Amino acid sequence: MVRPLYRSRSMARKKRNTPGNRNTIIYRRRNPSRAKCALCGATLGGVPAKRPAKMKKIPKVSKRPERQYGGRICHNCLKSSLVEVSKDL
User: DSSP assignment, residue 43?
Assistant: First the structure.
């Protein structure tokens, strides 16, 4: 039986042939899904798909776009909401 941390399905499995000519399974952490828009569900550009431990090591300006609602709402939804607000004024 493998170690408990490798039993999770969040670990990707690859079959490899070692230099000693043995077939083994290599375990590695899967990449998470891409960030989605809170309104329409489209994938967000400029937001990396990384695990939380890797995201901590990335600078803040690389984690999300530097605009209003950056990293939460896609540019199309933001544009349409700003147009609606400007029409009300």
Answer: B
Query: Which CA distances in Å does 48 have to 32, 43, 64, 84, 88?
Result: 10, 11, 8, 30, 35
pLDDT tens digits for range 38-48: 999 999 999 99
Residue 25: phi and psi, rounded to 5, are: -110, 125
Token pair recorded at residue 22: 């043995």
DSSP bridge partners of 11 = 29
* Per-residue model confidence as pLDDT tens digits over 17-76: 999 999 999 999 888 899 999 999 999 999 999 988 999 999 999 999 999 999 999 999
Q: Could you give the number of structural domains in the chain?
A: 2
Q: How far apart are CA 53 and CA 3, in angstroms?
A: 21
Task: Please indicate, yes or no, whether residues 77 and 54 belong to a single structural domain of this protein.
Answer: yes
